[in-house]
Every structure is written in structure tokens, then in C-alpha cells.
Write a sequence for this structure.
């Protein structure tokens, strides 16, 4: 094998590695929480635990990020549907406090096994 | 040279694999409508302005079907508060006819004329949400004053058996809206999508690599993400669920939820959740409510009467009941 063959082989190996990553790795999109409210939207990394306070027409909702999952910790709505929905972990998961017009969606990382949930 | 040829062959194989990969990813869009978060998932190129058109259609739908406000149903309710006969708005005709049919087929377990009871319990309004049940005499009064939609005459006018009905299509209108949005998607050339209105959904087509897969919520799970069982849905199928785990309050250790039994005016006591699979979202919506109210003893008969072959019920003790056809479709059912 000549030096040119070796160089070509090395380049092809790098190309194979890149293609493999692109096709089978599931992407390397950062894990994020996309928070939406009437006042605007903002992305938060899911890699750091934190409490996010966000104001809506009813008052202040609190979204908690912990161990890569997120939930509505509290919300001023009376029905508390958003709080009762608990923790959300998978990419594509959505949660909303409809009366307070606040929602979040998770992106990046492993997707859920399901394309939709019936509840 | 031999190694180079092998590497080239591997590269060609990978290039072929890349080429075979679906070029369209599933895109998700959300909007507030129908009193919930509506998610549209599309596995086709997203037509321009589609979401704004969906939003406009859902806003018009909400106004038309809201029992209060200034839309067609609200105005009809204002008339029915004082008279038993009122002109039937053309925009509501098909939906009310479908609801009357579902009312009859469910033997009255699904009855949209119980709006006065729903209003009394306060589950339809954030402002009037209760922390204790209404007085029994108020429930009795509202029950006695609510004529059934099953007995309504529908022609140029709607004729009910008594004055004072309040129509509330909260248990079927969401299904009708989902059907409408599916038709809108099809008109735009979308062939592969899910419309999910707060956990009630209908799918068309499939994902590029497999069928759409739907999880059904475990009613006593710690999170809405906890799944009892799952199924793959075929083109046009809807999965609708009714449960006691979202809209409820606890009073003196008892759970009072939003699915009212038209027979006694109290939250239906026999079920934790009910799910229906059907080709019509509108019927699936009404049937899920009827199934929940029916409970395990009457589930089979009521679903047969409504023409529903695929249903799943978790009873008040957590026992699982499913039609044979549904059992064949479900994966992971205990």
C-alpha cells in the first residue's frame, strides 16, 4: 500500500465515521426546554437544575428543571391540570397551563417511544 | 489497493443508506385552542401559512361552539333558556345532528343537553371552579330542568321537550374540530400527520419509517407520560380518552371529576379512564364519554350500540376491560 493509499483510506474512514454519526447517532441537538408565554419565548438548557418563574395573565407560574426533566411546579390556575401532568422527560413532550397561556416543549436527546399520548 | 476498494465499497454502502433515509423529519407545531394545547405533527413538507390557517379555523370553531359568548351556540342557548323551540343555526346543524345520534345510540349516557349541570359543577369555567360539590337540591333541580338532546326534534328549528336547556358540546366538539383540521390538512396536500388536541388525537398516513405509535395514559400514573398500553394507528384513525385525572377536585377524601352521569347529575363513579379507537374523531369523542359513564358493567352493550368495536376501560378499582378487537391492537396491556 502506497502512502497515497493510506491517506485515502484515512480520509474514507473519517468520512464513514461522519456519515455513521449523521445517520445513526440520533443527532446531537442540545437538550433544551422551549418556554413560551404571552410575553415571549426563551430556551433553557435541560442540563442545569433550576426554577424558572414566568408571568402570565393569571399570575406567576413556576417551571422546574431537574435531572434533565421538567414540570410545572406551581401555577395560579385553579384546575392545576399542568401541575398534575407531572414530569416530562422526552424530546417532543409538551405541557401547558392553558389559563395562564404558558407552555413548554422539550427538544433534543432521546425522543419518546410514542408520537402522541391519549389522555 | 485492495483495502482502498473495500473502503470505497463501504462508502458506497453508507451513501446508499443516507440516500435511503427519509428526507422529511416530523415537524411539531403547537397552538392554544379548544381550551387546551393543540399539537400538529407533520411528516410532510409544511405548507406555508398552514398553522395560521389552522389557528383561524379553530378560533372560528371555538366561537361557533362555545356555550357562552356571542357565537351561534351561545345565541341558541340564550333562546332555549326561555323557549323550547328555536331556529337551528345552519353552522351547527350537522354537529347537533351527529350529537343527537350519539345521544340516542349511547342510551343517553352522552347527552350535550346537560350543560346546566356542567355549569353548576363549574368544570367548564376557570373562574367558577369548585372545591366542594354543589348542594344536592341544586343538582336535582338542574337535572330535572335539563331536557335530553336524545328526544330533540331537528328540522328548521330545534325543539326540546322543555324550556331551560343549555347545550354544551364539550364532549364531542373537540372531536369535530379535530376532524375539520384533518380535512384542512388533506386539502393542503398533507398526507402524514397527527392532530392532537390535549390528548385527543387523530392520525393520517404514517411516519416515514413506521406507523404512528400512540400511548394511552395510565390513569393513576405519577406523570401524564406514564403509559398503560400503546397501539399503532392506521390512516384516519382517532384515539380519544376520557379520564378522572385532570379536571377534578378532592373534597372530604372523595374525588369529584368533570364527567357527569346524566342519570343522577353526579360525576360518574365506575371508571378511571375510557379510551376509544374509531375512524371518526367526533364519534370517538362522544363514545369515550359514554364509555366512561357506562362503566364496566354496561361498556360492551353501549359500545356495541354506538358502533364502536375498539375500546378500553379502566374501572374505578383499576381493573382493565377491553373489547377483543382492542386487545388485539394494544401492546403492553397488563
Amino acid at each position: 500500500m502506497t502512502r497515497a493509499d493510506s491517506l485515502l483510506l484515512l480520509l474514507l474512514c473519517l468520512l464513514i465515521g461522519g456519515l455513521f454519526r449523521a445517520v445513526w447517532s440520533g443527532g446531537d441537538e442540545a437538550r433544551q426546554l422551549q418556554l413560551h408565554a404571552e410575553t415571549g419565548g426563551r430556551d433553557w438548557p435541560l442540563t442545569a437544575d433550576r426554577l424558572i418563574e414566568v408571568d402570565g395573565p393569571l399570575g406567576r407560574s413556576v417551571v422546574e428543571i431537574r435531572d434533565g426533566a421538567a414540570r410545572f411546579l406551581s401555577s395560579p390556575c385553579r384546575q392545576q391540570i399542568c401541575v398534575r401532568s407531572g414530569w416530562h422527560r422526552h424530546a417532543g413532550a409538551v405541557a401547558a397551563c392553558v389559563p395562564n397561556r404558558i407552555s413548554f416543549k422539550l427538544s433534543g436527546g432521546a425522543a419518546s417511544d410514542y408520537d402522541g399520548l391519549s389522555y | 489497493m485492495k483495502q482502498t476498494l473495500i473502503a470505497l465499497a463501504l462508502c458506497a454502502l453508507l451513501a446508499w443508506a443516507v440516500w435511503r433515509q427519509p428526507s422529511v423529519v416530523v415537524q411539531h407545531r403547537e397552538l392554544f385552542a379548544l381550551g387546551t394545547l393543540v399539537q400538529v405533527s407533520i411528516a410532510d413538507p409544511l405548507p406555508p401559512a398552514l398553522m395560521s390557517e389552522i389557528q383561524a379555523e379553530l378560533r372560528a370553531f371555538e366561537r361557533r361552539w362555545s356555550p357562552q359568548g356571542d357565537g351561534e351556540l351561545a345565541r341558541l342557548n340564550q333562546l332555549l333558556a326561555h323557549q323550547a323551540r328555536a331556529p337551528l343555526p345552519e353552522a351547527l346543524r350537522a354537529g347537533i345532528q351527529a350529537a343527537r345520534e350519539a345521544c340516542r345510540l349511547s342510551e343517553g349516557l352522552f347527552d350535550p343537553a346537560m350543560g346546566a349541570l356542567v355549569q353548576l359543577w363549574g368544570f367548564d369555567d376557570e373562574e367558577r371552579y369548585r372545591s366542594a360539590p354543589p348542594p344536592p337540591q341544586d343538582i336535582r333541580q338542574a337535572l330535572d330542568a335539563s331536557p335530553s338532546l336524545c328526544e330533540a326534534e331537528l328540522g328548521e328549528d330545534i325543539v326540546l321537550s322543555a324550556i331551560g336547556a343549555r347545550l354544551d358540546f364539550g364532549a364531542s366538539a373537540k372531536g369535530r374540530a379535530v376532524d375539520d383540521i384533518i380535512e384542512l390538512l388533506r386539502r393542503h396536500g398533507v398526507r402524514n400527520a397527527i392532530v392532537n388536541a390535549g390528548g385527543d388525537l387523530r392520525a393520517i398516513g404514517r411516519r416515514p419509517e413506521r406507523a404512528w405509535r400512540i400511548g394511552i395514559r395510565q390513569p393513576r400514573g405519577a406523570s401524564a407520560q406514564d403509559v398503560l398500553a400503546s397501539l399503532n394507528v392506521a390512516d384516519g384513525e382517532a384515539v380519544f380518552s376520557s379520564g378522572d385525572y385532570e379536571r377534578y377536585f378532592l373534597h372530604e377524601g372523595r374525588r369529584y371529576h368533570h364527567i357527569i352521569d346524566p342519570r343522577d347529575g353526579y360525576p360518574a363513579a365506575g371508571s378511571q379512564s375510557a379510551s376509544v379507537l374509531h375512524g371518526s374523531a367526533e364519534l370517538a369523542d362522544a363514545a369515550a364519554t359514554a364509555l366512561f359513564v357506562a362503566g364496566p358493567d354496561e361498556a360492551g352493550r353501549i359500545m356495541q350500540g354506538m358502533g364502536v368495536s375498539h375500546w378500553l376501560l379502566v374501572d374505578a378499582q383499576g381493573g382493565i376491560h377491553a373489547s377483543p378487537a382492542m386487545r388485539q391492537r394494544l401492546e403492553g396491556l397488563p
